[in-house]
Specification:
The chain has about 130 residues and is mainly alpha-helical. The protein has five helices and no strands. Helix 1 runs antiparallel to helix 2. The chain is elongated and about 55 Å long. The two termini are about 15 Å apart. The model has no long low-confidence stretch (mean pLDDT about 90).
């Protein structure tokens, strides 16, 4: 089983997205950790963990998909990567609805995700 990806641009973009989402999450968590006026916590705080978890799954999923012997398995893993990417994009949109000063950084992450989706589409055609 290969540990290195065949498509290095896609893999590198996945690692960049992970680093960016971790930085954004650590920035946002300080704004969202405070209790609201009614004593409840901000429901958007959970999306910060979701973006880290989902972006962390991108790079290993690329390697897993490329290492599959049969094309059906490669396509199945590639489709799950598409699903993770879409969920990550949706969680970024949800975080933009929060009351935080770091919402501007989420626009940057969504832009990088759009680039990743383009690379992902080309990669899917080569599987």
């Amino acid at each position: 089983m290969r540990r290195k990806p065949r498509n290095k641009r896609l893999y590198k973009k996945a690692l960049e997205i992970f680093t960016l989402s971790r930085s954004i999450s650590s920035y946002l968590i300080h704004d969202l950790a405070h209790l609201q006026s009614n004593g409840s916590e901000d429901p958007h705080i959970y999306f910060t963990g979701d973006i880290i978890r989902q972006s962390d799954a991108l790079a290993p999923k690329i390697i897993t998909a490329e290492n599959q012997t049969f094309q059906d398995d490669r396509i199945r893993h590639a489709n799950s990567l598409i699903h993770i990417t879409n969920r990550l994009y949706k969680n970024c949109e949800r975080l933009e609805q929060s009351e935080s000063n770091g919402k501007e950084f989420l626009v940057l992450l969504r832009k990088e995700l759009r680039k990743f989706k383009r690379l992902q589409h080309h990669w899917l055609m080569t599987l």
